[in-house]
Design a protein that fits this description.
This protein is an alpha/beta fold. The protein is built from 19 helices and 20 strands.
Length: 491
């Protein structure tokens, strides 16, 4: 198991670790990945608001056959090609207004390469790496081998328009078959290891059927773009084996033991939480866990699996070409409008179809006519009738809100916020402060003050979901000043 060092000097704050998967740098970002990183960002911001020390990780997956071929098509060396696209994913931090302390790991970083090689050595020392000849069908878009049972009409179910390739060579293999019992025990001891429950049942069934060893290297002469295997100049690491290790290399493992224990796992138990799409459940919840056990490291704490954003029922995919870019959406509607839609109108666990008409309708109804109009009405009353320096007095969060986020039910937490928005809007209609103040100034001011207190509270709850809007609302209440229109109506 992992070597334990003293935890003396470690932060006394509760620690929270959350990572997204790492997207391939074979094209521009699309809202399929944006969904995942916004869901994760909401959790990171919420836990930071709770006073926890947060380590939030994302980055880019830059090795493998797919990237190598894309670089050759672009007439660039692979590193130069990866550098260009990695910057585009880095830019999401500002474009999506992500958590300020977000960590960004690249699988071409020197620290990651060193960590991957040390991880390899530990699995080798455990007796879990060996060499053999093999022949398989391979989906380059998935960067995964495909068994006959996984194919539909001879094609990958996720990338039906891509022809499978045949790999026939001698590679190193990981002794995955050795870990069926250990994984079964892990799932038994941690009843919420994978959420939602339907995905947990899926991975348990997969493991129960028996595990097969899998290839973790490629012949360098055929495909040179990858991390060098220790003590073997003829092979490089298979991209999945390399990429999964980013979850610990981003913490500085194996060098920074204290940080690793604080955020990934220590004597108190596992800490790492991973978010991933439903096409990665085997890699995240089974393969990676077996790799960790082999290397003598703590397993993950929890795996959160989300569905796909579809277009007319089909998975959004770079290889298929049916992607929606976040850039024009942010330019036309603003960052928080996109964050709002993906958090409230997209299921956190199941597939959800995206369409511009749905997006625009939600924007006008719930942001322009809803939240934006409510803020304008209340702050106009406050600016006119309340004295300066009327500070809000609110704290904590409602149980319904916190329980939803604890279960990663992001849309339910967003729905709760909008239920409070609707109640506040109804309160204005019911109390008619603009009329009361004409008859009884103090009574009218008290109603308006109460409205601003609730508005500030809504602003606080919005912080993880729509951080820019949250700050504008809280600032307006504190300064007692009507802000500029938050969400101009779109025709």
């Amino acid at each position: 198991m992992v070597k334990r060092s003293s935890l003396k000097g470690m932060s006394t704050k509760k620690s929270f670790y959350l990572t997204t998967t790492l997207p391939y740098v074979n094209d521009d970002p699309h809202i399929g990945f944006v969904l995942e990183i916004i869901q994760a960002d909401i959790q990171a911001r919420y836990h930071a608001l709770q006073g926890e020390e947060v380590f939030f990780n994302t980055g880019t997956d830059e090795h493998g056959l797919k990237i190598y071929r894309k670089a050759l098509e672009a007439k660039k060396d692979p590193q130069t090609y990866a550098d260009i696209y990695a910057e585009k994913f880095k830019d999401l931090k500002s474009i999506l207004n992500l958590y300020p302390a977000l960590h960004f790991i690249r699988t071409t970083d020197a620290r990651h390469i060193a960590a991957a090689q040390e991880f390899w050595r530990r699995c080798l020392a455990s007796g879990d790496i060996y060499k053999k000849n093999y022949r398989i069908k391979y989906c380059v878009s998935c960067e995964l081998e495909k068994s006959e049972s996984e194919l539909i009409h001879g094609h990958c179910s996720i990338h039906p328009n891509i022809e499978l390739e045949l790999i026939d060579e001698e590679n190193y293999f990981f002794r995955f078959s050795r870990y069926q019992s250990a994984l079964t025990q892990l799932y038994t001891e941690h009843a919420d290891f994978v959420i939602p429950a339907s995905r947990f049942n899926e991975i348990k069934k997969f493991v129960q059927q028996g595990l097969e060893d899998f290839s973790i290297s490629r012949v360098k002469e055929k495909m040179p773009w990858g991390i060098a295997i220790p003590d073997d100049d003829e092979q490089i690491m298979y991209v999945w084996f390399d990429a999964l290790i980013n979850y610990v290399s981003t913490l500085g493992w194996p060098v920074e033991e204290k940080k690793f224990q604080q955020f990934w796992g220590n004597k108190e138990g596992p800490q790492g939480i991973q978010m991933a799409g439903k096409d990665q459940i085997r890699q995240q919840a089974a393969i990676w866990q077996a790799m960790l056990l082999s290397a003598g490291l703590p397993t993950s704490k929890q795996i959160v699996i989300h569905g796909f954003i579809t277009l007319e029922g089909q998975k959004m995919s770079k290889s298929v070409g049916n992607v929606v870019s976040p850039y024009p959406l942010v330019k036309e509607y603003g960052t928080d409008a996109l964050r709002y839609y993906l958090s409230r109108h997209v299921s956190p666990f199941e597939d959800s179809d995206f369409g511009m008409e749905k997006f625009k309708e939600a924007y006008n109804a719930n942001l322009a006519n809803g939240l934006g109009n409510l803020v304008a009405r209340i702050m106009q009353l406050a600016q006119t009738h309340l004295p300066k320096g009327t500070h809000p007095e609110v704290s904590g969060f409602p149980q319904e809100y916190t329980e939803a986020l604890k279960k990663f039910e992001i849309n339910r937490a967003a729905d709760y916020i909008w239920s409070r928005i609707q109640l506040l809007d109804q309160k204005i209609t019911d109390t008619k402060p603009f009329k009361v103040i004409e008859v009884n100034s103090e009574a009218g001011k008290k109603i308006i003050f109460d409205l601003t207190q609730e508005l500030y509270f809504i602003g606080r709850m919005l912080n993880p979901f729509m951080p820019g809007t949250s700050e504008k609302i809280k600032k307006a209440v504190i300064e007692n000043k009507k802000p500029e229109t938050l969400f101009p109506r779109k025709i």
